[in-house]
Automatic annotation (TrEMBL):
GO terms for biological process: signal transduction. This is Phosphodiesterase. PROSITE patterns: EAL (PS50883), GGDEF (PS50887), HAMP (PS50885). It comes from the Bacteria. It comes from Arenimonas metalli CF5-1. Its cofactor is Mg(2+). InterPro entries: Cyclic-di-GMP_PDE-like, dCache_3, EAL_dom, EAL_sf, GGDEF_dom, HAMP_dom, Nucleotide_cyclase, Rev_trsase/Diguanyl_cyclase.
Amino acid sequence: MRWRLQSRIVALLILVVLAAQLATFAVVHVATGRSVSTQLEGELAVAERVWQRFYDARSRQLLESTLVLADDFGFKAAVASGDAATMASALRNQAARIGADAAVLLGPDGDWRAGLEGADPAAQSRALAPLLARAREEGFALSVVDFGNGLHVMALLPVLAPDQIGWVAIGSTFGDDYAGDFRGLTGIHASFAREEGGALVVHASSLDPGARAALAAVAPAALAPDRRIRPMDLAGDRYFALSEPVSGADAVRVVLQGSLDEAMAPYATLKDRILLLSGLSALIALGVAGLLGRGISRPVVRLAEAAQRIQSGDYSQPIEARGKDEISGLASALGHMQQGIAAREERILHQANHDALTGLPNRARARDHLERTLAEPRPDGHACAVLMLDLDRFKEINDTLGHGFGDQVLQEVGKRLRLAVRPDDLVARLGGDEFMVIMREVEREHAPRRARALLAQLREPLDLPSTRINLDCSIGLVLSPDHGDDAQTLLRRADIALYDAKETRSGVAVYQPGRDEVHLRQLALMGDLRQSVARRELSLKFQPKVDLASRQVRHVEALLRWQHPTLGAVPPDEFIPLAERSGFVHELTRFVLEEALRQNAAWRAEGLDLGVAINLSAMDLMDADLPDFIHDCQRRHKVPPAKIILEVTEGALMRDVDYAVRMLHRLRAGGIRLSIDDFGTGYSSLAQLKRMPVDELKIDKSFVMQMTEGSDDAVIVRSTIELGHNMGLSVIAEGVESDSSLALLTQYRCDMVQGYLFSPPLAGAELYAWCQRFAGAEA
């Protein structure tokens, strides 16, 4: 009986332990399946939020890149030019610089102007039509479009100067690499699909080819974009899938897939060990079995709670992993995944708002900061100052020392700017070599002084590991509310002030009221100037030069005039600098040479033998092909070289004296006469003047117009005439408008005079008639 009872007790205990183990195994199996499913659903929910941040962050980067391009002055000038080749070249260069896969330039009305090579303009226009409609309503548009060769994420922004002169769209490929990047970030597969003709078309995916083909065979209704998590079987593998429309492109769905088989794989070994433990547990006490059950169930509950926290976006509470069993390993992996997702989200947000090279806030962050600063109250007498900075000759640093060295320079400039401003001021890098400083509160009268102090800091020698360089910088300064009370106006006017600082080489320039209108007029004129020759809006006028000794007309000066179809007569003092700035001055000079020599040939055919003087700009002296063009033009029109006088301003010669002297010798070698125009205003030395192979000095009209006996102007004019004669040069005085000035010039033995006292500039036929009358009157 005793042994039978003992056997029964042992058997009962064994049966109880086995039953408990089997029950424990069943509980673990069910709990594990539910936990993994819950975890996977949680990961999908987390992945959905990460997707939104991932897509939004990349879209913001794309939008910022597009905004940088749309705000780039050189690109605006290219768009404003209206020249197709110029616009296409600028678009290609800018797209390559920011790494864009697709780029399109549209006109203000949406007509296609330029795109990357190999693209179909018609397909691009059709694909961008919905974005263009949205951008006209909202000011910008961002969506996924199909150009026929794949999906692209496209950002569309207006190009303002400041009025709209076009639309620019920049995009990146929305394909397998895009999905693969998201897979690498979250571990969740992503597929991009849309319904076409009642079937699901998968455009891109991180799935393997078999699963991708299986996904394409799924009925579209089974993946309705309602953000519900559904089980799915793809090529024999189990997945949980979640579908939702891509933000801004409802026709395109993103399908997030988490593999249930991959998630359950770590638990296969765990189940085998539990079965082994169940066999051995028949010899172990009931208490050990209870402890084992408790040891298994509690970690699973903690993992489920942690998965729910991650699902809700709470990454603050760490996941504890105790022990070295499989569940602890899973808890550790889940903890690392939580930390990784939190770090990646933080990194994505930081990258979206900061410059990768210098670590400074980028344009978007600076604009947001400026808007918040403008909304804050300020004490009386204080203003918010915005400084736009641009390094001078930074391209030369890149070209000479390399882009790596240029990056070091930009990093050091960023550090120096941060050290030079107050803690509550913001320093941002806008792109390239352009920086911005926002001073929250500064006394109005002290703002220029602080800007100059900042400039002095940047001009200090920069010590780098490989060399020591000196930097220079131009700064445009605007104040709020003096120059505007919104961010867009202040940034535009800061750009204008920066341009004025670079143009005048003053270092610091404060925005001057009314420059907005001047800037807009200049942009319009630069664009129209390129079409002026083809539209026959340009013409030449000729002003005679009278030889005082013989009282005969020896030379005439060719003067360019522009009759704009809407603005009327545009003075040369306005459009010639614009031509030099836009690089169009070479075409203008060739036009003047061609027309002047053609007219000279016509006069010679009628018996009027005159020399014709033509003005050259400083940029013309840098044109190595100019002498060949002049000689070819002279031969075609059969004008003797001695009848051609090229007038070069003294200031233009002083920009690069050595190169100018070489160019003048090339021109002089062909028999052409050379004249220094506006003499007395260019600060040239006698040593430099002696080197130049010139034939004439032309006294600037500022010394002649107000000249009276005994005045300082008279002393300068008389000394210049004597200097020219002593050097064997002819001397011409321009701006002669009174008999008293003419009498003094005759007394000083000036060779030739020119001015309204004799005649204003005349057209070719009118000048011929005037010369006939003048010759008759003098006779």
